[in-house]
Specification:
401 residues; mainly alpha; Receptor-associated Protein; three-stranded antiparallel beta sheet; elongated
Length: 401
């Protein structure tokens, strides 16, 4: 139950402070009136969440639950009863706690969007804003259904992206492990065999380089691991700063092959989020702020925020976006035409769907090309190691003959 801190005055005018556990501020006011106290200030106090409520709720499970809530409301089941049903049937401990708190708050007089706002880490700012607009406009069931579909689509896109890159990444990790294993455990065994040839100056240069790399990996492996770990930790912390995030996001957009793919995926998320929120009656300035965060790219978010400032001054959305070189001219022109025809929300969703189709075709092609390239690269490395080890043996056998 939420805890509220208060500052009040008693009948003699003395200042009294304390805290009360209650569902809403109205309950706090009633409790203070029962104590003959006159409230001066009441604030909600943040409390540590229970361990199970800190568990992250899977987005797919959240989408299914919101869809069930929409179905219950469309069937005529009251909101309180619907929340109680979902609370009872929730198998995830964190989700069960969230819906129990939603039920308590709504029972205390809060709206569904106000109750969800206390759990933005679970629902997200976009979901809270769309539910609020649906509550105000009288289309709560439709807004919950649309939000559920949106979350499922976003998770599907994320899953396809991760699934497409999983095999090349695993291939790279496995290849690196094989190379390290060869240098640390296999190559050193040939050091004593080739020592006589080195003294006579007959050892091939390729073999000499391989043995040198093996000695370096063997003798300095501990320091390499320590320094590498320190470098990764330092880079990770720097990338968490504002300058580091901006450099990282700008570097992602400038990558040779992956850059256009990452840019189009970010633009698709932005367009779909903005179009969905505008379709559900969320004010454009608030929708732009939330959709800028959904792009998950600082460079693109800066361009969107500048567009928000221009719209506040009475300008269009397309004009400031045209100044950002990362927004393709075709998208900017489509947004400009949509603003003139008052079809911005529909056109934004169409843009998102078009970008997603083109991007995933390009991603599938890139992954198909990347797999044989990485296999050839790994085979080439292994071939170099084998040739470097076999050359002295061929030379020794020729000399013996």
């Amino acid at each position: 139950m939420p805890e509220f801190s208060y500052v009040a005055r008693d009948a003699s005018g003395q200042r009294v402070t304390g805290s009360i556990e209650a569902v809403t501020k109205q309950e706090v006011l009633a409790a203070l009136a029962g104590r003959s106290l006159f409230p001066v200030e009441i604030d909600a106090r943040k409390r540590a969440e229970p361990l199970f409520s800190r568990r992250r709720v899977p987005k797919q499970l959240l989408a299914v639950t919101l869809s069930q809530l929409a179905d219950l409301l469309q069937s005529g089941v009251p909101l309180l009863k619907s929340l109680e049903i979902l609370k009872r049937q929730a198998s995830h401990a964190g989700l069960r706690e969230v819906f129990a708190d939603l039920h308590r708050q709504v029972e205390g007089g809060a709206t569904l969007s106000e109750a969800m706002r206390r759990h933005q880490r679970t629902f997200g700012q976009m979901t809270v804003s769309i539910v609020h607009a649906g509550s105000e406009g009288g289309f709560l069931e439709d807004s919950l259904s649309r939000v559920s579909s949106f979350i499922e689509l976003q998770e599907d896109l994320k899953g396809r992206t991760i699934g497409g890159m999983a095999y090349p990444v695993l291939l790279a990790i496995f290849g690196s492990m094989v190379l390290v294993g060869l240098l640390v455990f296999v190559v050193p065994k040939f050091e004593s065999i080739f020592d006589a040839m080195r003294q006579r100056g007959e050892l091939p240069m390729l073999t000499e380089w391989l043995l040198g790399a093996s000695r370096l990996a063997w003798r300095w492996s501990l320091w390499i691991v320590i320094l590498g770990t320190m470098a990764v930790v330092a880079a990770w912390r720097w990338l968490g700063t504002e300058a580091g995030r901006r450099w990282r996001d700008l570097a992602k957009l400038r990558l040779p092959v992956a850059g256009p793919i990452l840019r189009n995926l970010a633009l698709a998320r932005f367009c779909r989020t903005l179009g969905t929120m505008l379709r559900h009656g969320v004010p454009i300035l608030q929708a732009l702020k939330i959709s800028s965060e959904s792009a998950n790219n600082v460079v693109l978010a800066e361009a969107i925020i500048s567009a928000t400032e221009n719209i506040s001054a009475g300008e269009t959305l397309a004009q400031p976006l045209s100044h950002c070189k990362h927004f393709p001219e075709t998208i900017v022109e489509m947004i400009a035409v949509a603003e003139e025809s008052n079809r911005l929300n529909d056109v934004l969703i169409d843009i998102a769907e078009s970008l997603e189709r083109r991007t995933f075709r390009r991603l599938d092609l890139a992954v198909r090309l990347l797999e044989p390239v990485m296999l050839i690269f790994m085979a080439g490395i292994v071939l170099v190691v084998v040739v470097a080890l076999m050359l002295p043996m061929f030379k020794m056998s020729t000399t013996l003959q």
